[in-house]
Amino acid sequence: MRATDFAAVGGFDPVFINGQEDIDLCYRVGHGANVFEYVAASTVTHHEGRTKGRGRFITHNRYSYAARWNDVFPGDDVDHYAKDGFIVAEYQIDRPELDGKSIACWRAKIEAKSEPVAEAG
Fold first, then answer.
1. Are residues 30 and 81 in the same domain?
2. Residue 87 sits in which domain range?
């Protein structure tokens, strides 16, 4: 991400405490548009969950995220997987204790790869 883009939106929003701030930043920079690119030749190492205190504010962060973005972006990603040629077998909850609070994250379990779906237009 260019430093000018990061600065233009005020950087990471401090309402998020060690979680969800990266996703929020991307949404604010892109305004919901596909402005980021996938570069297959790149290598990224993300040491997720290694920051001290990580996980202490999950409930706060997810409620903040949901309040800001749930009405902006639909949660169903099956179409995105299908366009890339994958079939979602099921979704697995990341934190069962958050089920029923509308802030649980469901991760796709991929069953198989199929032929990618051609985009219209």
1. no
2. 75-121
pLDDT (0 to 100) of residue 63: 94
Residue 20 near residue 62 (C-beta atoms within 8 A): yes
Residue 85 has phi, psi (to 5 degrees) of 90, 25
The 10s digit of each residue's pLDDT in 58-80 is: 999 999 998 998 888 766 677 77
Read off the pTM.
0.71
Report whether 66 contacts 93 (CB < 8 A).
no
One domain for residues 101 and 45: no
DSSP secondary structure, 67-110, as one string? HHHTTTS-S--HHHHHHTTEEEEEEEES-GGGTTTT---EEEEE
Are 25 and 82 part of one and the same domain?
no
**d(C-alpha 102, C-alpha 31), whole Å:** 23
